[in-house]
Amino acid sequence: MLDRTDPEGEIARAAAAYSNWGRWGEDDVLGTVNFIDEAKRREGAALVRQGVSFSLSQRFDMDGPQKGWRRRTNPVHTMTDTGTDAALGAQGFPHGFGGADDVIAMPLQCSTQWDGLGHIFDHGKAWNGRPSEKVVTSEGDLVTGIEHLAPHVAGRGILLDVGRVIGAGGELPDGFAITEEHLTATAEAHGVTVGAGDIVCVRTGQLSRVRRDGWGDYAGGPAPGLSFTTAGWLHRSRIAALATDTWGFEVRPNEFDNAFQPLHQVVIPSMGLLIGEMWDLEALAEHCAADGVYEFWLTAAPLPVTGAVGSPVNPIAVK
Question: Residue 124 region, left (φ>0) first, then alpha (ψ -120 to 50), else beta?
């Protein structure tokens, strides 16, 4: 049982028990993505049988869920050249040539994204025990910038549709804590095993609900998500990454009094786990339910933004 009154003690115990510091050497910058090796990628590629593909990304536009918390806003898309400019001959090109250009301004974690290893600290320590002030400065993440992950995040993907297996009407209610028992029961229902190097996608159904009812407090409000108690399962399973269809990966409100994202505080700086948030798993889930196959080839490379602590991503699942 968790002691709801002692988040700091529970976090410290979990961080010590499930630490991967030094597992891949003192210079490591990949964390659990190290579990994706050549054999795991071959295993993932062999899962392509139908050739059908799914984008697991939400849209990047001004109609997104962000409300400005900690300056997280929705993307602002601006055209710098348009068809109107071309038609009016205002672009200065010869022989009728015209074109369009655009620019986008957005926080890197405003929609479907990865949390980088420099995103969260625990008592001033970043991934692998490094001092946070020496890792992330005003110049960016000088050590574990998201660019290091760009070639590596591709392999066997697994969908655990907890919303469909455990929930009512395919959805878990806000505040529902997904436990290890829920995850293993869902895997058994789907006929899949979860193991080293897998990229696990957990569908709660919250995204389906907010699309029906409106964004509401999707960004930062109550949500279904992983229980703090799943830290042991995340460590033992040796998965490479886990992504959800929610804003914050873990259950909200969190399971302690006066706490903020305690599972993040364990799995990123101590475990080195790659976390994805705000993934759109709806179309993939429908297809998996129809054909009964919940494993697939998944490629989800972050944008190699030098020194970034997070990145937008357009994950592609192929079955």
Answer: left
